[in-house]
Amino acid sequence: MLKAHSLSPEEILRILKTDRRGLSEEEAKKRLKIYGKNEIEEEEESLIKVFFRQFNNPFVYILFVASGISAYIGKKEDSLIILAIIFVNSLLGFFQEFRAITSLKALKKLTEVKTKVYRDGKLKVIPASELVPGDVVYIQEGDVVPADIRLIESVGLMVDESVLTGESVPVEKNADVVLPEDTPVYNRSNVVFKGTHVVKGWAVGVVYATGRQTEFGKISEKAKEKSPETPLMRALKKFSLAWMVIIFFLLSILFLIGIYQGRDIYEVLLLIVSELVSAVPEGLPLVITFTLVIGAIALSRRKVLIRYLPATETLGSTTFICSDKTGTITEGKLKVQEFFALNEKFLNLISALCNSSDGESGDPVDLALLRWLEENDIDWKKLREEYRTVKVFPFDTKKRYMAVIVEKEGKYYLLVKGAFETLSNFSEGISEELIKVHDVLAENGLRVLFFAYAEIPEPVEDIESLKLKPAGFVGFLDPPKEGVKEAVVNARRAGIRVIMITGDNLKTAVAVAKQTEIYREGDLAVEGKDLSKYSDAELYNLLKRVSVIARALPEDKYRVVKVLQEKGEIVAVTGDGVNDVPALKVADIGVAMGSGTEAAKSVAKMVITDNNLKVIVEAVRWGRIIVRNIKRAITYLLTTSFGEITLLSSAILMKLPLPLYPTQILWINIVTDGVQDKTFPFNKEEIDVMKEKPQKPEKVFLDKRLFLRFLTGGLFIGFINLILFKHLLSVYSYEVAVTITFTSMVVNQWAVGIQTVRDYPFFYKPWRNFQMNPYIFIGIFIGLILQLLAIYVFPNYFHAVPLSLEHWFYVILTTLSVFIFIEIRKLVFTIFSER
């Protein structure tokens, strides 16, 4: 393994056969074939493994046992049908999972980390996965380090290596040092590692390890962990277990009753096994995953890229949105609106020199200052030539100022710009009039910066020990984005509180918050420094009334998120800088801006390409639609399963012949559940989901309404078909009665599927049923073809006989009864809800 830290920049460039101009495109392609992609890939299952995994299911094992029992007692047709059903079910599961895997791969590509690399001497941006050993890369503040890199050149480089070493304090890096070979990883100051974050400064370096060969790759090989289960999946498991226990207990009693009644033990055993498989929605986890994937694809079309799939299920339960101001609520395109000069010469000088922008890109404040100078015919480029920059004090998020020391003709000047509250503490001549000027600018919604200077005999390290002279104020206009006000109103209507957390002055922040309806009469606005006065319990109560937190530090944002979460709130947080990483990481939904740093995007659960609060609120709306579609699938599966259990249980208790054969029960599972539940992920929404209050993810589908729906629906289906079966036995032979009941149960469940598409009654704007989810009708058409084949082409295999038109009358009658019953129930629910 190459000991890059023990080599000088010249030595490592020679060993890697490259130079400071970087590799050629042709050479990079050759090396990519040799070394592979710069990815720590998860082990990818082959399609054959995915297919055979469909059989790794306790219910499939039960079916294999049932097939064996059938073969043992001489019912070979039943045995073959059960095996065929196992195969068809597994095939359906395979195709659905294959589609989900393919979609997820496409979504991952959209959120891939980008990096700057020198190729053929030109700096270009490429996906980090295409880096190879020998590539020369450029990294700067906000970047995620894309590979293990030996630094060639560095300026003020500070890197957060906590993900690798656990050290929370950023580490200073220096390209010029050469270290002993046995230097431990955490002391390698001339090397940066894949997955770490650049906090300050910039550097150029050469890639010496990629993918699994990186330090991060070695660790990931040793500690492979599965992602934690989401609240919804945990709740689903808990619910499924409880449902299985109830069903198993009920079916065990029915088995004993059946044996006591003198029924054939093998027939009863097969029936119970078949009903157990039908009653438990074993395919539900896959349906949920598929629903989340379809939802993530829909969100990607709306400028929301999901990096962590389970975040889609959590979106709809959001109760708090903690949003940045600049670039999310406001345009982030600053323009100098007003200024107040006490010393115009130094005001212009500070604007030009205490400035990190190149006139084309950079911090929005710095860029706006240079444009303002240009508009006033001041040549800032000439000023930069006249004055030599001796020392730069980069913008400090805690102190809230930036400073430079410049020299001209042997004289040194300290030039500073930043927050008035900070700089006024070590400035002279701060009068009441000056304070009033600042407050008026801020109350007009302008972002205000204070400019100050000092003539000094020589460069200094501690500028706060000096007394600065005021040069004046500059007020920047950053207008609210279009649609933000409406988004805030929608969020409030949906029971979501929006808190604006900003580094701006309190007066400016409140002015912007008022314009966007975030701040209303009776709300509170506080400064970040005041949060430390409150205990966690007190802070939570305060946050229920706070809508603006100004002059906030990264640790303030982090604490706000943690306090809200500890009280059970679901928190979405926006951020775009390295300082936002801690809050984005711990948030239930960390939302990074598409224009933000790679560091922020790498820890966020979703990325929005249009930096606008309205996009986040729209994502919440889609999150609720996704969860409702999962809820529809659960309602449908439990209703149909409970209907079958009700029919069989009642028949056994009434000592009637069995109304369905085991193979028929399994077939019903194929032509109803197996086809229809896969269509619910595509359901559209007609009810305004943003009128509802958020529900906790784990309780989102365990409400009274869902319970009433599947209980009443299942009981009605079971009893209407029991009455039908009892009547048919008095009119037709047992074979005909069973076939009609068998077909009735199939068609009845299609009616349940159609009615589950909407919350409103079917006959209220009936055309909406076809617009909401056309796929469900395609599923019914496929099921109809299969059912007709079962009773007209292969009746012997299903213990069936071909049905006449007269027989179909009974099927239509029960289906209409089920349909009308659900329609009346929906009408009652609708009236009750509106009241």
TrEMBL record:
The chain crosses the membrane at residues 58-74, 80-98, 241-260, 280-299, 706-725, 731-754, 775-795, 807-828. GO terms for molecular function: ATP binding; ATP hydrolysis activity; P-type calcium transporter activity. Residues 3-75 form the Cation-transporting P-type ATPase N-terminal domain. Keywords: ATP-binding, Magnesium, Membrane, Nucleotide-binding, Phosphoprotein, Translocase, Transmembrane, Transmembrane helix. SUPFAM superfamilies: Calcium ATPase, transduction domain A, Calcium ATPase, transmembrane domain M, HAD-like, Metal cation-transporting ATPase, ATP-binding domain N. It is found in: Endomembrane system. It is a multi-pass membrane protein. One of its GO terms (cellular component) is plasma membrane. Pfam families: Cation_ATPase_C, Cation_ATPase_N, E1-E2_ATPase, Hydrolase. NCBIfam families: ATPase_P-type. This is Cation transporting ATPase (E1-E2 family).
